[in-house]
Amino acid sequence: MNLFNRKFFRCLFGVSVDLLLVNVACAGPPFQTDDPEPVDVGEHELYIAMEQTRTSDDISGSRPLAELNYGPVPDLQIGIGIPYEFNNPNHGATEQGLGDIEVSAKYRFLQEENDHPMVSFFPLVVFPTGDSDIGLGNGKPQIFLPIWLQKNWGDWQSNGGGGYWINHASDARNHWFFGWQLQKDISQHWMVGAEIFHNTEEKVDEGASTGFNIGVTYAIDEHNHLLFSAGRGLRNVQTTNQFSSYFGYQLQW
């Protein structure tokens, strides 16, 4: 399963206002590598995004994906992601409809200090609500069990980590995902970043995959942000990722 579809699912932007100026700092979307920082207590964040991935067989993704996160208590975030998916095979009709719904919880158990990074456990469950017979779902529940880390220095931020996907669909394999992302605030409103990520084999006879994304974030103001990324695979490109893109809007309140 493409990780963009699940987040494609979840994330956090850290935003601060200093003398009425907006400072950009983000992690998670528009990247596949996620972040360990939960939303603050009593706060919400909403993502509305479009994403797609092209392979030699089809183009598929979400148009749109809606994700809502909330901080009920300190160091904890709960979230839900609901995708409206499409699948456009090279030889066949385009299908679209509800995809697999994701429910997640992020627990930060270590705060960032000078000598160590921030660390969180961010499990999620993906329910098979989409129609797998027409390519809009997995057909079986999935569980992802990742650990994410984050370290900041000046205008730079880095996130990394990964975890294990449990997937019992008929043509799927349990597999590992690993990612590392680096980003920099280049102005009061703009952030640029890049990531590299790797999946062990997700489907039978598909092989492992490696890819990268380059992304930008624009902070309109304290509460509103635009996100974009694009990339492709570096290994088993034809069957996993010839080109992928993500464009989204984030609202915090």
Produce the secondary structure layout.
Layout: H1 3-6, E1 12-18, E2 21-27, E3 44-54, E4 58-70, E5 76-89, E6 95-98, E7 101-110, E8 118-121, E9 124-127, E10 142-153, E11 156-167, E12 175-185, E13 190-199, E14 209-219, E15 224-235, H2 237-240, E16 243-252
Antiparallel strand pairs: 1-2, 3-4, 3-16, 4-5, 5-6, 5-7, 7-8, 7-9, 8-10, 9-10, 10-11, 11-12, 12-13, 13-14, 14-15, 15-16
Could you walk me through the main structural features you see in this protein, from its secondary elements to its overall organization?
Residues 2-25 have low confidence and may be disordered. The chain is built from two helices and 16 strands. It has one domain (3-252): Beta Barrel (Porin). A hairpin with a 4-residue loop joins strand 12 and strand 13. It is mainly beta and 253 residues long. Strands 3, 4, 5, 6, 7, 8, 9, 10, 11, 12, 13, 14, 15 and 16 form a 14-stranded antiparallel beta sheet that branches. A two-stranded antiparallel ribbon has the order 1-2. The relative contact order is 0.20. Helix content is 3%, strand content 60%.
